Amino acid sequence: MGDNNVNGKNFFGNLLSTVNQVSSTVAQTSEQLLNSFNKTSEMPGLLGELQKIANNLNEITQLSNNQLSEEVQAFVSWLRQKDKGPVEVETISAEKNPTGQPLTLVRLKETGFMAQNYLFSFAPQAAKPLTEYLLKTASENIKYSGIALLAGQWPPNRFELEKELCVIVQQDRVRLGKDSAAADYVVDWVAEYSKTSKFEKRELIDSKGSELAQQQTRRTDLLFSGRHDALTSIASKVLATGAGKAGQPGAEAAWIFSVTGSGGVGKSYLLQQIESLYGPRLLCGLVDHESLSQIELEAQGEASLVKLISTLAYKLKSNGLSLSRFENAHKDYLVMQSRKVASKTEDSSAVNATKSFTKALGGTDAKNIAKEISKHAKGFSFLKHLPGVINIGGTIAEMGFYVYDRISQEEQLKNDAVVSDRALVELTNALVQDLAKFVEEERKKYYLWRRPMLAFDTYELVGPLADTWLRTVLLKNPIFQSLDPLVIVAGRLELAKLSTRWSAYQSATKVIRLEPFDAETSQTYLAKLGTTDPQTIAEWQELSGGLPLFLQLLVSTGSEEEAIRQLKDRVLEEVKPEWQTFFIEMAVPEGFTLDTVKRLLTLNRKTEDDELAQQIYQYLQQASFVEGRSVRLQYLPVVRRVLLRYGEMTSPEKLEKVKEALSR
Predict the structure, then answer these.
(1) What count of other Cβ atoms lies within 10 Å of the Cβ of residue 623?
(2) Is residue 647 helix, strand or coil?
(3) Where would you tag: which of 221, 458, 532, 644 has the fewest CB atoms within 10 A of its CB?
(4) Strand order through the sheet with 200-202
(5) Which residues contact 638 (CB under 8 A, 6 or more apart)?
(6) Has residue 199 got a pLDDT over 70?
């Protein structure tokens, strides 16, 4: 008995020591493996790479053969002491099983009335090749009433479990899968020798997560290149299991990620990949370009902010969140606003007031609540006037205009006043309460519970409207923080540069800067798109500056001339048509000031127009493809190259005149 106790304690010492060591090195190992896989030409896509990482981690983190032998001996000794029946031990060499490691199986054949057969195994990680092999082995031999695997931890990228199997995860003290006496044997043994409570029963994942996992197995992305470091950093937060408390071994401490980079560098694409790859572990609320097209960002008013919040809420709802509290609070808010409109306007002016309000709300929300609001508007019918004002807004391109370098002090003060409104705070609290209920139920029932992820794309557009609300109302909410959420803000500037008030979240924030592809990554990316000619690759790398968006446009066109035209159109798609020629000519100087704009404008119009020059200069200051925000501005190098090449193709004489005029 004494020896058995020693063996049992050695088992837990070895196992827990290994689990902690594994957890602390998972991120580093993943990064190394991802980098190596990224250079391999035969990978079937990013999903395949991540699965190979999980499989290789199982090999890297195996306990030594001697330690595994000690653990098996401890369990076998305990079983024999219980005298339930004959116990057999079989060791299978690494060459004869798909795990790549020696595998030991323990079989118990009970004796007596209602005797059953059970199969047991042990591993640091419940890798899929192992569980599949256990089931295959069981089907080829005698019938087992239960199969149990005691694993140190659950693989980070695994979202399914064979229904015939039970896995006991030591790291998080949970038991998954089919209940059987086999699992009871293992749990009782662990509890007896570790002097701890029994393992909690959990389902693996909810129905929505399972659905997303099944879709994931059918979806690969051959084009994802060069962003594996960023993906690994965020994944370490997403894939944390257990209670999700801060300080869990191997988990990412930061929960706010500021993803930055120039237009076309792939910020939106990274967000899409996170949602695609890790959707089974996330309750996603992504505010993207399509969402922003329904919101009047320039209005900077309370109605626009409410629309943004409701857009986020209904994105979460589409992924499984019940909005019982939020929808009631939202309806109450809109009714209150309708009463304000009705009380301050006569019927003759109510139409304009209503249009202004519903235009900011827009779309489905306005339709859904119009009838309810009309009840409180002193006989005024909102329904009558809605058709002409809903669904207003244009598509906002990734490289468009109306962007902001920083949120000014004036804007900060204005937004502070808006978010201090009690109704807005209550609306936010209602959303947080719905999230809290979701997380509580998920943690109680599921092992791979879905963590809330709120993501904001093109934040230079959203920030002036939502930044104060996000910082001071939502993220500051202690209940929201307790949910262990993931918040990703993608934009041209990192959060601390957008507003110095983000310094309050410095310890919780990690900056991920996406740079253009280097020559090697561009070569890999273009090869996936079918372009392998070295000269073409070199020319396109120079022209595109390594921006993935530009590289993809180059590949999709049939000629370099057509590629230049499409790149020019993409850069200038938000510029007024009558200004586009002028913007092309602005690529001639390496940089420009207000005086440069005036000189070129005079050259074009043969007369001075200081007011128009000031307007164009302010437009340039806000463009996402312009650098510098002081006296001197300049195009991003890749944008300048594209516009110059287009000018040389279409009007070389005009460019020469501009050069001559600027040289005087």
Answers:
(1) 23
(2) helix
(3) 532
(4) 87-92, 103-109, 117-125, 146-153, 166-169, 174-177, 200-202
(5) 516, 543, 544, 545, 547, 550
(6) yes
